[in-house]
Amino acid sequence: MNTNGHSSLSLVITSYTTERLNDIYELLESIKKQTYQNMETIFVVERSQELCDMLDTFIKEKQIDSVRIVFSPQKLGLSMSRNLGIENAEGDIIAFVDDDVVLFPDWAEEMAHTYHDETIIGVTGPGYPVWEDSKMSWLPDEFQWIVSCTAFTGWQSARTVRSTWGMNMSFRKEVFKESRFSPNFGNTNGGKEAWKSGPVDDAEFSIRVRMKTGKHILYNPKVQVYHNVYKYRLTLKFIRGQCYWQGYSKALLKKMYPEDNDTSNLTRERSVLERILFRMLPLSLAGLFYKPLISFKRIKLSIYALFFVALGYISCSCPKMFGFAKKYFIG
Fold first, then answer.
1. Partners of 169 in the beta sheet?
2. Among the CATH numbers 3.90.550.10, 3.80.30.20, 3.40.50.620, 3.90.480.20, which is that of 9-330?
3. SS3 state of residue 128
4. What is the pTM of this model?
5. 160, β-bridge pairs
6. Would you state the pLDDT for residue 302?
7. Edge-to-edge strands of the sheet including 9-15?
8. pLDDT band at 77 (very low <50, low <70, confident <90, very high)
9. Fewest CB atoms within 10 Å of the CB: 28, 71, 111, 315?
10. φ and ψ at 235, to 5 degrees?
11. Strand 39-46 relative to strand 225-229, pairing
């Protein structure tokens, strides 16, 4: 599937419920507006025949071209749903986005053009928050990883990176001849309970692909999406889960891939931690005098979040010492 010398792009989206129907409609509308025409969309729906039927009606009414719905009556989970999408994809590049994002009009064009040489095996890009409530914008950039947005990196230019972000990523089709997303890590269905299985599936797959191929993953700041951020993502329960599993997954990946310097050194995480401790926290303490409410929220978040990140990291690094069961943090 390659025309006029341009790489063809298959976009895989997964969903299982009508709860995000309006978000999905927005995403489909943004797909229709893409400036890059050499693409197809594979929409994997698991369990919900209602969602399947509603999507089919919407796609026909809006005349959105090259969208195929793949239905599974069984519960698959995120990784297996993606793998089902891969099996049905025909493009030279296979991309993935969450069902609650909106693509910039040139998203597909930038994604395809980023593969300008054979050393690039994967591509990822930024996600900008669209707050369900504008009052949620108190969340500092350094903690946007909690809500699956990317301002915490501070990156303004293209660079090679350790791994992709699942809400906005792609890989060459050749990778999937031997590799698939592991159900051991991506067995969540997403949504409010996504944190229960830990945010490690995309990162583990990315590192495995890099190590196997010897090629690299590129972050392109022009491959852009908006990511809807719902109120529940700033509840203490969700923050606790996200932070615990962030810490746990970093320790786990270090154990799994000790030969990968980027994974072992956690350079990006150290940089974010330094910014929190030596810039964000001092500014928040100073802000208690003129923006007391927001500053207090940020200080409280920093203490709470870093505690659970550390707890997750230590509980994976020293499991015999702590002996934590996953269900302790999931109930």
1. 96, 124
2. 3.90.550.10
3. strand
4. 0.91
5. 218
6. 97
7. 67-72, 39-46, 9-15, 93-97, 168-172, 120-124, 216-219, 159-161
8. confident
9. 71
10. -80, 155
11. unpaired
Query: What digits encode the pLDDT tens for the residues 142-153?
Result: 999 999 999 999
168-172 and 39-46 strand pairing: unpaired
What is residue 117's three-state secondary structure? coil
What angle (nearest 5°) sits at the alpha carbon of residue 174, between those of residues 168 and 176? 65
Q: Which letter does DSSP use for residue 145 in this model?
A: G
CA of residue 102 relative to chain centroid, distance:
13
Strand partners, 40: 10
* Residue 72, beta-bridge partner list: 46
Neighbours of 3 (CB within 10 A): 9
Residue position matching structure tokens 């972000």: 165
Q: State which amino acid sits at residue 20.
A: R
Task: Count the helix, strand and coil residues of the chain and give each as a percent rounded to the nearest 5.
Answer: 55, 20, 30
Q: How far, in Å, are 6, 94, 111, 209, 261 from residue 116 at the CA level?
A: 11, 15, 10, 18, 25
User: What is the pairing mode between strands 39-46 and 67-72?
Assistant: parallel
**Can you state the angle between helices 292-317 and 236-256, rounded to 10 degrees?**
40
Q: How far is it, in rounded angstroms, from Cα 249 to Cα 241? A: 12
Residues near 82 by beta carbon (within 8 Å), at least 6 away in sequence: 12, 14, 44, 96, 181, 186
314 vs 99: CA distance, rounded Å: 33
pLDDT at residue 320, as a whole number: 66
Contacts of 25 (CB under 8 A, 6+ apart): 58
Beta strands 120-124 and 216-219 are parallel
Q: If you compute the radius of gyration of the chain from its CA atoms, what whole number of angstroms results? A: 20
